[in-house]
Amino acid sequence: MKRILLLFALLITLVLSASAQMVDPITWNVRLEKISDTEGLVHFDASIEDGWHLYGLSLPAGGPRPTAIQFNPSDGVEIGDITPSRKPIEKVDMVFHLKLSWWNSDVSFSAPYKVTSSNPGPISGTITFQGCNDETCIAPSKEPFSVAIAGAPAPVDENHEADVRQPESKPVEVVTGSTVDLWAPVTYPESDDNAIVSVVAQPWWYIFAMGFAGGLIALLTPCVWPLIPMTVSFFLKKNNNKARSIRDAFIYGVSIVVIYLILGLAITGIYGAGKLNELATNAIFNLAFFVLLVVFAVSFFGAFTIDLPESWRNKVDNQAVSTSGMISIFFMAFTLALVSFSCTGPIIGTLLVEAATSGDKIGPAVGMAGFAIALALPFTLFAIFPSWLKEMPRSGGWLNSVKVVLGFLELALSLKFLSVADLAYGWGILDREVFVALWVVIFLMLGLYLLGKIRFSHDSPLETVSIPRFFLSLASISFALYLLPGLWGAPLKGVSAFVPPLYTQDFNLYAGGDFEEFEDYEAGMEYARNNHRPVLIDFSGYGCVNCRKMEGAVFDTPEVERTIKENFVMIRLMVDDKKYLPQPETVTENGKTIILETIGDKWSYLERSKFHGNIQPLYVILDNEGNALTPSRSYNENLTEFVLWLQDGMQKYSEK
User: What is the extent of the structural domain holding 306?
Assistant: First the structure.
């Protein structure tokens, strides 16, 4: 489904530049607030662009870089602890599988200071931070600062090493074994047919389509299907004027849309947009959703009926009878919503769960609009074309089969939410092979049910298998067979968004991407020069989600693995590597003096200064002098385009 929607999203794609890009989603302003002659506060104001977030002050190891403010020793000034202006969002992030915290809008940090001498020095130091959005992350960044205390001698140029109290360190030294400056900034070739195309995600299109599909499915349930001819016949008999009958049916359809739209808006109003965004990865909510969907599945299997109190239906029905005009039609639509709840309730519940966990604040309303439009459409169309009623399939046992099929699908979907909770708490009860095994069994049983090999107590005997049932059974059993290799580690790219990550797999026969690579830029370039090969640089990160996706979808394929192994020297540089350099290195960037303390700092600076980029993943093909042979590439799982890009780099290298 996601692949189909991706093709649709391409229609609204923004084509961006193929060259690496610098983004600056988080900016800082440092200021002092004087409380008395000897006390005050130093404030660090972070301005965060919409869609981006700044990570919290304390994060577990193995994840993104936390925000940290380090002060240099300052004569005559004592500085207290850092306090944020508000609490960050805290949740279990199922991409990193860690409990993380962040701020997704502007936030300030404050620390008290106390002057202890008559001639205090400036307050200086470094802000270390990392920002991410739903698509990418910037490399961990450092922002030096220096502010003078009022009444104290003003510091000289803040870019001077002495002003920021930085430890004595050496400049970056490039040892390459030649006179070639491998750190010199590159100029990218003009963009060609292999230019990067970034898809601008539109979540509400997916939510609307999902809601519309849910509404179409709801039409086929035994609670709704029989009501279509009854309701349309009522409108036609009530009015001799066909135009008025069509108008009433149209009002009826609009009323259905309004009712479900109000329901979707109410969900957002009750929980709030921020709370809905947290639901996506909150382990407690996901566990509750799992239980809810299992209950829905058992209901569809016929164990019990989920229904609203009969008194509600009676009151609404009485209102429809006692009123007239458009109000009466509205209450008729309300009656439909209540009467059909035993069938539509689980579908609506599942839809609201998916819409709420999408992170889009209008997701529930968009989803309900799609559901209601699909549900209301046949009532209006049959009123306009009443002769179509004769062509409608008669009610029968097939309607109950629709409910049972939905029960199987609800059961399969519920495992997705259980997986989130399982990963969050580290229970290890739903590892990838267990999840895949359950899906194989569920879809195999669904196929057998459609063939009549499995029957529930309220099912009618199936003497013959219709053509639609046969093909649905064929699709279900085929899907189960497609999943089967996943028990031994097959990537299952078509359902990778649902199944647990590959690292939870105990046994994997499909591990790919096994080629030699360098973790040091200079060493890799030296090897490439001595062996006369082009260089493929991969700016990656341990906490880079899209880097892992690219490795699974592109690098772990035989074609890419073979091409790189036989033709390239690969250098993978982790911009968030926290291991310290043997000795800090000092550089000047954009007029500011920055100390590179870790290996990640060094590679992040290399990416910014030489390749003009600060996002991951970033892929660059270089010649042996460190010049770019092709435009760079970023996250894009299109395997064909990536192979063509590699081949283009090989050809450009052979022509030099």
Answer: 203-395
